[in-house]
Amino acid sequence: MHFFKSLYIAKVVYYFIVGIVFLFVLAFVFPFLLGITQLFFMVLILMLLVDSIILYKTKKGILCERNVPERLSNGDENPIAIFIENRYSFSILLEIIDEIPFQFQKRDLLFNTTLKSSEKQIIEYQLRPTKRGEYSFGAVNVYVKSPIRLLKRRYQFSNEKMVAVYPSFLQMRAYELMAISNRLTELGIKKIRRIGQSQEFEQIRQYVQGDDIRNINWKATARRNDIMVNAYQEEKSQNVYCLIDKGRVMQMPFDGLSLLDYAINATLILSNIAINKQDKAGVITFSDRIGQILAADKRGGQMTKILELLYKQKTRFLETDYEALYIYAKTHIRQRSLLLLYTNFETVTSMRRQLPYFRKLAKDHLLMVIFFENTELKTLLDKPAVTTEEIYHKTIAEKYFYEKQQIVRELGQYGIQALLTPPQNLTVNTVNKYLELKSRGII
């Protein structure tokens, strides 16, 4: 039974069978064809028998193994590798079908290759998950053809594996490596000149060209008979909280990811940068009620806690309760902190309903409201309108597009920082805004 389950007939055999049947039919009209047709049929049967013996005389002719990372990064291209070794004594043709998780909705993941005897090969491809959670990989199916190419033998390697998809830790590592090598500008992070100075005194040192002359310490200069300046260091250990809205407005999709997933990926990267700058990073999720909470900290293991917390987040599809957020912040966040609020507003009216809570949060903390551009509207605005219907659609699109700009202006009138960004630029723009606020010393 195992033999028949693993044996497959190549397409060319069916073509031969159709040709032989056609010759048998013609033999009724031209009797001399009967002998030739019978000979062809016997040769075909003999070749099939020889091909099956060649394929099955080696018990384990193929070695195959799939290598998958222990966890996948959401929204990123993750490398997958399939290792194959030919243990036959002849060259073979291979068809490889990998049973990847159903979430990718790919039914045509087929690889064709050729291997010489004892040759090894690694087939690499990329998978881009767009949802967090558990992904189940199935078996790897390898179909082998001998040089005769009439039959195929299937080898099935049960490399079944459950892999968790986490927020974008690959982007986090990329930003971290770029920061170490001082190449963040390649990712769009701006070099921001520090405006003003912190009041946290560090040391008195000798003046070098470029130092602010307002920092000259005249008493020390007189004692040393050399120009000395006061050096200040950047304030550290400040609280940076990422507040993630899990309400229905964050379920809107863009390029396969929801706005919630974009916010989660940006939170992971910003928290890592904040901790590297010696600030304390924390996370609060909320919707119709307060969700998961992680107090701001910078000790070792904090990034692991943030990653595990963000992995479990799901949209609740309910209206967000900003009053509950304000009450929690008022009660539990005692120290003045930077609050990065990831949410979304489509109209000025929807923002104004929450404005009283924003103003109360901004009294005790530095609040930055981060929401998203509707890139589809922008595309529609850039496209010329021809018909009456298109003009009508463009007029409505302009209304909603400029309402987003008005939201930024109104928040600014009350001293609330606002960041309107396309989803794909969320991480870069948020990091730039954080660094700008740090440079201005207003956190």
From TrEMBL:
Keywords: Membrane, Transmembrane, Transmembrane helix
InterPro entries tied to this protein: DUF58
Organism (species): Arcicella aquatica
Residue ranges annotated for the DUF58 domain, each copy included: 203-354
Protein name: DUF58 domain-containing protein
Residue stretches spanning the membrane: 12-33, 39-56
